[in-house]
Automatic annotation (TrEMBL):
This is S-adenosyl-L-methionine-dependent methyltransferase. The lineage of its organism: Eukaryota, Fungi, Dikarya, Ascomycota, Pezizomycotina. Belongs to the class I-like SAM-binding methyltransferase superfamily. BUD23/WBSCR22 family. GO terms for molecular function: rRNA (guanine) methyltransferase activity. GO terms for biological process: rRNA (guanine-N7)-methylation.
Amino acid sequence: MSRPEDTLSADVHYDDTEARKYTTSSRIQNIQASMTRRALELLNLDSPSFILDIGCGSGLSGEILSDVPEDEGGPHVWVGMDISASMLDVALQRDVEGDLLLADIGQGVPFRAGTFDAAISISAIQWLCNAESSDTSPAGRLSRFFNGLYASLKRGGRAVCQFYPKNDTQRNMITQAAVKAGFGAGILEDDPETKNVKVYLVLTVGGAAQGGKGGDITGVVDGMEGVDVVDQRKKGKSGKGEIKKGSKAWIVKKKAQMEAKGKIVRATSKYTGRKRKIAF
């Protein structure tokens, strides 16, 4: 099944007709509200905060931010940015409480460093994986976005981006771009292995995250019901799959990595990795 982002840019796809259709759909409203509340749970904000809503559209997610009750840490003040003028026009007609900015997140996040306490994005960042012209590239758009987002957040801040990856390649490209920008990153999946799977990229900015917990997704989801942590970083570091540093297998692997970078290495032989006898 084709996706709109495969053929059109978001500002072209979400014209006046599509923007109004999207906003008035009760199904979309319910899904958007549910995912925004999940993102807020992952942000774990314990006091009113200044939040950036990335790809805010017609303000469906922003309304949830404005309506967070005081005993749950709200209400929050927010700024929304979106590439679709039609979507923002609907948001203005709906008289949402946040400030709105017409901007392409693929060109960066144009705010002063350390402006926001947190950020959310619902169903938006997958649009960055498609280039509208030969002058742009998904890698470049993702890099500009995550670098700008990282700078715009306060140290210890957090961002949660819900998105629909087309495949594992796209999912990894997005995650790696976030890590390269400096974020601590992790993926949380709701309803995994179903057609309704929802992917949340949880990002932390240096130091301790909100609530004094470590800036790592394992600290973010600590204590959450129904959440299992699969830490890919631990694979290959212990057990039968371990490659001992300095062993022949380790040396061969390093040589392959260097060759892939275009470097010249010595040929592997039966002597590779062999320990020399100590000469007296």
